[in-house]
Design a protein that fits this description.
single chain, about 400 residues, Citrate Synthase, domain 1, Cytochrome p450-Terp, domain 2, 2 domains, 17 helices, binds carboxymethyl coenzyme *A, Citrate_synth-like_lrg_a-sub, Citrate_synthase_typ-I, Citrate_synthase, transferase
Length: about 400
């Protein structure tokens, strides 16, 4: 039946009204609450961007201070959660652990699962933003068999995360300010991206009145896929698989071959048909971090640079407007910092949590809000009579 508009992949359907993030894919423009991402990446910091996304305007000094206090008040997780972690296999992918633990937050913090109470919605938001780095770092520490490191509220949001990942009780560890800044920038660049697959998942889950922890867990599950947040891990693994510059043409040829499912990971975007503005900032950041760490002859990086150069000149990629996206460069920075590829998507998830919450809150307070309930075009059998098994 042709009763409904058919729009596979939602390429031309707006699912909501939103005043949070704006993307102009042709211009390569990304704005959070009207502010260009380039300016925020240079002049702002992650928690300020969180405030902006959640509240709609930049905070004054006092507003910023009290926001920061609220976040730091919630950075520790319930001690009982340590036992929950211990139920997982050590070799579990940290994203698998993250989906489980964040989902379980509604069991640990059931006092802030009442969606109808605005105050409780606020607290759930603070808890999620504050605890995601702690949970992601715990997932990492657990996977490498090291003790969990408690959060430190004297450090910035990004430095605290690096400290929880890389410090061990046996040694004094100091986070280099440049690395904390690079991590903070990665977080800002990933903070929101309007109605992408995981954000739409969070909204759809939330439209039924499900609690925010459950909704964010659903978003994390969606983000994991290689076409979405999982692309950062997939991209670095692809660069390693290519291995050396002379093998690039072979992989370019495969990406162009319609009979080969292989795609260049970290290339292409549903909305950006011009350079991904996040990729530009990320590229510069990658150069800075590698310089700082004195990494010059990294083979993965050489492959990345050459691949980018060849693809940007190739007729196939040019005509389809396939440019490097945010995931192309973020992996290079994270690898240089010492993260295993399995931590790339969890870092995306913890950075995007604020965007998911801002979008969830906007949806909850929308007076026209209805449960999300798509229709379908039915292609199955018409009505028919049941046949007993002996007559089939
Ligand atoms: N390598 C080779 N060909 C590609 C690629 C690629 N990375 N991306 C798109 N194409 C081709 C595709 O085969 C299609 O060709 P044709 O029109 O001849 O059938 C055309 O370009 C359009 O692609 P599409 O799949 O219809 O476009 P989409 O908007 O549905 O998909 C995408 C967007 C991001 C899923 C896709 O470009 C892709 O799979 N990229 C690789 C994965 C990736 O890097 N994802 C990260 C996205 S950025 C942020 C995030 O993490 O979410």
């Amino acid at each position: 039946s042709g009763m409904f508009t058919y729009d596979p992949g939602f390429t031309s359907t707006a699912s909501c009204e939103s005043s949070i993030t704006y993307i102009d894919g042709d211009k390569g423009e990304l704005l959070y609450r009207g502010y260009p991402i380039e300016q925020l990446a240079e002049k702002s910091h992650y928690l300020e961007v969180c405030y902006l996304l959640l509240n709609g305007s930049l905070p004054n000094k006092q507003e910023m201070d009290s926001f920061e206090t609220m976040v730091t008040r919630h950075t520790m997780v319930h001690e009982q959660m340590h036992y929950f972690f211990r139920g997982f296999r050590r070799d579990a992918h940290p994203m698998a652990t993250l989906v489980g633990v964040v989902g379980a937050m509604s069991a640990f913090y059931h006092d802030s699962t009442d969606v109808s109470d605005e105050r409780q919605r606020e607290i759930a938001a603070f808890r999620l933003i504050a605890k995601l780095p702690t949970i992601a770092a715990m997932a990492y520490k657990y996977s490498i068999g090291q003790p969990f490191v408690y959060p430190r509220n004297d450090l910035s949001y990004a430095a605290n995360f690096l400290n929880m990942c890389f410090s061990v009780p046996a040694e004094t560890y100091t986070v280099a300010p440049e690395l904390a800044r690079a991590m903070d920038r990665i977080m800002m660049l990933h903070a929101d991206h309007e109605q992408n697959a995981s954000t739409s998942t969070v909204r759809l889950a939330g439209s039924s009145g499900a609690n925010p922890f459950a909704c964010i867990a659903a978003g994390i599950a969606c983000l994991w896929g290689p076409a979405h947040g999982g692309a950062n891990q997939a991209c670095l693994e692809m660069l390693r698989q290519i291995g050396s510059v002379d093998r690039i043409p072979e992989f370019i040829a495969r990406a162009k071959d319609k009979n080969d499912p292989f795609r260049l990971m970290g290339f292409g975007h549903r909305v950006y048909k011009n350079f991904d503005p996040r990729a530009k900032v990320m590229k510069q950041s990658a150069d800075e971090v590698l310089d700082l760490l004195g990494i010059h002859n990294n083979p993965t990086l050489q492959v990345a640079k050459e691949l980018e150069r060849i693809a940007l000149e190739d007729e196939y990629f040019v005509s389809k407007k396939l440019y490097p996206n945010v995931d192309f460069y973020s992996g290079i920075i994270l690898e240089a910092m010492g993260f295993p590829t399995s931590m790339f998507t969890p870092i995306f998830a913890l950075s995007r949590t604020v965007g998911w919450i801002a979008q969830w809150k906007e949806m909850i307070s929308d007076p026209t809000g209805k449960i999300g309930r798509p229709r379908q075009l039915y292609t199955g059998s018409p009505a028919r009579d049941y046949v007993p098994v002996e007559n089939r």
